[in-house]
Amino acid sequence: MEFITGTPNNLSDEVLVGLARYRHKVFVETLGWNLPTQAGLELDQFDRPDTLYVGAREEGRYVGIARLLPTVQPYLLGEIFPQLMGDAPLPSHDEVWELSRFAAIDFQSNVLSGPFSSPTTVGLLKAVQSCALRHGVSHLITVSPLGIERLLRKLGFPTHRAGPPQIINGHPLFACWIELNNASSASL
To answer: What is the pTM of this model?
Structure first.
């Protein structure tokens, strides 16, 4: 598996289009999210020059994506889901970034494994952690379904809820803090 990391300034147009097509397939076609799209590409206002992408490819096809956003700029949790923080303030710090648009699905694989425990998921999480640490990130915050909390703990990531879970558009979601450190990467 190959991992590609970078911002729009240092990734090729081919890679950026491939990642946006993969996101469309995952989030719009497969999960049925009502997101703005154009020509089969899923991009939003948070896809900016400072956005850091981590993509996973296998045999030339995309099998995973993650988006990292600094919390000192507008980000998904802060702009769309601030209620998930409960009474806590929204993060805004150079060492805190948001993890969003995380997916690890191989649409051509015949291997049946849970979407939260596949080797692709674990590899992508490890690549996200490594990339974030290289950029001086100490904590990630993410809007996630409740099952992610169990996965992250199983993989050795220190996590905790930023606020109580809430039902949003029929789905139980919560804001999850993920502590990044070299110790947690050893368990992956």
So the answer is: 0.89
